[in-house]
Structures are given as structure tokens and as C-alpha cells.
């Protein structure tokens, strides 16, 4: 039986898909429609994805899954899933000027600290806090399109150095972080936070800095995207830090204009699959008293957009999949 009964409802940014069957094989025609909608809208929202199996099956309509490069975040039951929140991922709290929050994640593209960023990811929310906990997504293709021609020319051929930053202390005050009031919680506010932060500092050393282009021509749709991953940006190559920070801030402010941003208030079993080449995303965070738990797949088909900053030490990579 044809499964073509799905409907794609455009949101102001992205689109929601209704009518996806709850079980069974997803036929090729349906997969084709989903894929075309994904490329057209940048991300798709599904409701009522009630199991890991369904999340994996729908994710696989968009490409092969990959095992996330950071072992610490993998789900012990299934290496193709990572955990967001939950007892194993108890991240340090931050203070945002009003409250202590957990799960607050600054704007980024997944795995943009590596030369091969992943193609996309599907996040499904299993446990949802009553208050807050939204995920934000920004369409960087539309943001690029609206830039002034002079700024587009300035960005031509421009590259930036990207560095993983797992320690919130290092991101505070950084121009790429739009929550300028955020600071890590003190040990008094969040007993154990110093030790938890110490557990993640080693991760940074395993991921040498990389260089990515500021603008990416999408390999499938051909649209140009403002390819920044703000929280990982160290500086634009060839610029003094002040000039680089000013440019970064101006671009981030532009990308975060409400017309390019969608804020998703989760319901249990909602799932969003984003095109990581086109969209960047962030987590608003929630109050520590409320549990929030999500499971995420990662789409392989790595895109070699970058190279190591220090190629002498880490080697140029010559083919796409080596
Ligand atoms: O927790 C969120 O809202 C965003 C999480 C995130 O960045 C991710 O799943 O890649
Ligand atoms: Fe992410």
C-alpha cells in the first residue's frame, strides 16, 4: 500500500511532517518525499515517534548512521545513539543571570570540531521538562541569502579555526556565545561541578583544531550556507582577534534574527532531524529539578569541509573517507 499519505506542513523555518506510519517498512516513494522535503526545509519535525526502533528507521531514510566520535556521549545499549541529559550525562550547571540551568548548549553544528562534519542528526525527546528545555534551530541558508553583497564578497574564501570547547568556562564571554550573561555554576551552587568539569577537559585534547570555510555550498541542494559553528569558532584565519570577534558577532547576530530561527517546545516523542550542513542549533536548557532526556542519532556521509589547523602534526587527509 502506498504510504504517500504524509503531509509536509512548512513552519516559519523548517517543516512538520504528519501521517508517517507507526510501524512497518517505509517505502521508497515515501523516503524520497521525506528526503526532498528535508533538503528543501533544512529540518523536519515528527510527532509521536514512540520507540528507538522507529527513530532509527526514520533516521535511516536520510542516510547511514554513524557511531558518534566522542565515546563519552554514546548510549551503552546502542552505539548509534547518543544520550542528551540523563544520569550518565550529568553536565555541569550554568547560571544564566536568573536561574541555574542544565542542558544549556550554545549555537553549534554537530561535530564541527572535526574536519568531517556529520550530515545531520535526529533528536527525539523521551522525557520533557514542563518548563523550558526548548531546542533552537537556525536556517543559515536563508541567513546567507539575505547578507549584503559587500559582506558576501568579504566572506568569499574566508575560513575559520574551530576548536572543541567542552569546558563552559572557556566559552563564557566568547563572541560566539550569544548568552553573554551565562557563567558556570559555582561549587556552592552545584556541588560536584568542579569535578564534573574536570572529567570533560581531557576531551578537548583528543580533538585538534580544524579549519572550515565560512560559507559552504550545500553539496546536494547547491544553496550557500553561512557555515559557522559559533561556539567552536576561535578566529577567522588572517584576522586579528578583535576584527575576527567583531565579524563573528555581527554574523551571529544576523543569523539569530527571528526570521531565521525556530524554537521548539518539546512534547514526549517529538523528533527533529536537521541537516547539519544547512542548520545550526542550540539548547535553551532547563531547571535542574526537572528531568530532560533525549536520544540522538548521527547521520554519516561525513562532509570533508575542513582540514586540520596544524597539518604538519595531524596530516592532510586526501580522500573523503580515509
Ligand atoms: O539539547 C538540545 O536542545 C540540543 C542538543 C544538541 O545540540 C544535539 O542533540 O546535538
Ligand atoms: Fe548538537
Report on the structure:
By secondary structure, this protein is of the alpha+beta class. The chain has a single domain, classed as Double-stranded beta-helix, CATH 3.60.130. Helix content is 22%, strand content 30%. The chain is built from eight helices and 22 strands. The strands form five sheets. It has an eight-stranded mixed β-sheet with strand order 1-2-3-18-9-20-5-4, covered by helices on one side. The protein has a six-stranded antiparallel β-sheet with strand order 12-6-7-19-10-17. The longest helix is centred in the C-terminal third of the chain and has 15 residues, at 241-255. The protein is globular and about 55 Å long. The N and C termini lie far apart (41 Å). The structure holds 2-oxoglutaric acid and fe (ii) ion. Residues 84, 103, 105, 110, 121, 123, 135, 281, 283, 296 line the site of 2-oxoglutaric acid.
Amino acid at each position: 500500500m502506498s504510504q504517500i499519505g504524509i503531509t509536509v506542513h512548512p513552519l516559519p523555518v523548517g517543516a512538520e511532517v504528519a501521517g508517517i506510519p507507526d510501524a512497518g517498512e517505509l517505502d521508497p516513494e515515501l523516503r524520497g518525499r521525506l528526503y526532498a522535503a528535508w533538503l528543501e526545509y533544512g529540518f523536519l519535525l515528527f510527532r509521536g515517534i514512540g520507540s528507538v526502533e522507529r527513530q532509527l528507521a526514520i533516521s535511516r531514510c536520510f542516510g547511514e548512521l554513524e557511531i558518534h566520535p566522542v565515546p563519552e556521549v554514546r548510549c551503552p545499549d546502542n552505539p548509534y545513539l547518543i544520550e542528551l541529559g540523563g544520569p550518565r550525562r550529568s553536565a555541569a550547571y550554568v547560571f544564566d543571570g536568573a536561574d541555574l540551568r542544565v542542558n544549556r548548549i550554545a549555537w553549534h553544528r554537530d561535530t564541527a570540531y572535526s574536519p568531517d562534519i556529520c550530515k545531520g542528526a535526529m533528536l527525539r525527546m523521551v522525557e520533557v521538562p514542563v518548563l523550558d528545555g526548548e531546542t533552537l534551530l537556525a536556517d543559515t541558508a536563508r541567513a546567507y541569502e539575505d547578507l549584503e553583497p559587500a559582506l558576501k564578497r568579504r566572506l568569499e574564501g574566508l575560513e575559520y579555526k574551530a576548536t572543541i570547547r567542552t569546558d563552559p568556562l572557556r566559552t563564557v564571554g566568547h563572541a560566539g556565545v550569544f548568552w553573554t550573561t551565562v557563567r558556570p555554576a559555582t561549587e556552592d551552587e552545584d556541588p560536584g561541578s568542579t569535578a564534573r568539569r574536570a572529567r570533560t577537559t581531557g576531551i578537548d585534547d583528543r580533538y585538534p583544531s580544524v579549519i572550515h570555510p565560512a560559507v559552504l555550498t550545500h553539496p546536494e541542494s547547491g544553496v550557500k550556507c553561512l557555515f559557522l559553528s559559533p561556539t567552536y569558532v576561535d578566529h577567522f584565519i588572517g584576522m586579528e582577534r578583535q576584527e575576527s570577534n567583531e565579524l563573528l558577532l555581527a554574523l551571529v547576530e544576523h543569523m539569530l534574527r527571528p526570521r531565521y530561527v525556530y524554537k521548539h517546545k518539546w512534547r514526549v516523542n517529538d523528533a527533529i532531524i536537521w541537516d547539519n550542513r544547512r542548520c545550526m542549533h542550540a539548547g535553551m536548557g532547563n531547571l535542574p529539578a526537572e528531568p530532560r532526556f533525549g536520544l540522538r542519532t548521527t547521520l554519516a556521509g561525513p562532509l570533508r569541509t575542513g582540514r586540520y589547523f596544524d597539518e604538519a602534526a595531524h596530516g592532510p587527509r586526501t580522500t573523503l573517507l580515509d
